Amino acid sequence: MPIEKTQQAIHHAAADGYTAAADTYARGRPDYPPGVADWLRDSLGLQAGKTVVDLGAGTGKFTHRLAATGARVIAIEPVAQMREKLSEALPQVQALAGTAQSMGLPDASADAVVCAQAFHWFAGAEALAEIRRVLKPGGKLGLVWNMRDARVEWVAQLDRIVNQAEGDTPRYYTGAWRSAFPFPGFGPLHEEHFSHGHTGAPEDVIINRVASTSFIAALAPRERAEIDGQVRALIAAQPALRGKPVVTVPYETAAFHTVKLAE
């Protein structure tokens, strides 16, 4: 796919933000809970001999989990800087330039397609038709999101700081992505949730995590500095965070899957 066409297929917040923040993304994003390994095996059927596509793979944060199943992994990522980070970390994974609307893979070539932290960017008929084309009959589409647990008050305050800058950026929490379903050729969505925590230095698990948010990374330097100042002020005001060398940010992982129906 020509570079200009690929760029046009990516939301401007992702194209600008993830190009600028590939390093911060790799440092600031949380891992996924242990229960995801069982979900990949039991719900998506991933194991040796299977082929899975990591669609919108980013720097490979979830690709590690897919590779651990023993399945052959093909990573599709349109942002070159993110794809380079993935290839450095996982040289055994085939990493290709492409988009959800044009993966460049053969028909019925994958046992599963997984979108981790990604489906909200391209939720729609064109992407789902392309995913359906690439999946084998009976193949699975998996959707995964790691979200801070806003039931904790300081986390809700952090989310309010972040959300003020979102503009027209698609987000998981709005639920708008759900309007893509039901979709012809796919069965119903099945949903599971896992709780876990992201533990580390506040600079990494809070400040770098916020900085890695696409629409914040895409802001002008002065606006990014304002957000950073608000986040640091929140940390300084919270007894659970203030002066702590290590903190834990509570997360909830939502995992969905649907099956491609036989034609």
TrEMBL record:
Any GO molecular function = S-adenosylmethionine-dependent methyltransferase activity
- Extract the InterPro entries matched here: Diverse_substrate_MTase (IPR051052), Methyltransf_11 (IPR013216), SAM-dependent_MTases_sf (IPR029063)
CDD domains recorded: AdoMet_MTases
Kindly state which keywords UniProt assigns to this record, in alphabetical order. Methyltransferase, Transferase
Pfam families reported in the protein's UniProt record: Methyltransf_11
> Methyltransferase type domain location, by residue?
53-141
**A biological process term (GO) from this entry:** methylation
Q: Which PANTHER family match?
A: METHYLTRANSF_11 DOMAIN-CONTAINING PROTEIN, METHYLTRANSFERASE TYPE 11 DOMAIN-CONTAINING PROTEIN
The UniProt entry's sequence similarity note says: Belongs to the methyltransferase superfamily.
Query: What name has this protein been given in UniProt?
Result: Methyltransferase domain-containing protein
Source organism of this protein record: Pollutimonas bauzanensis
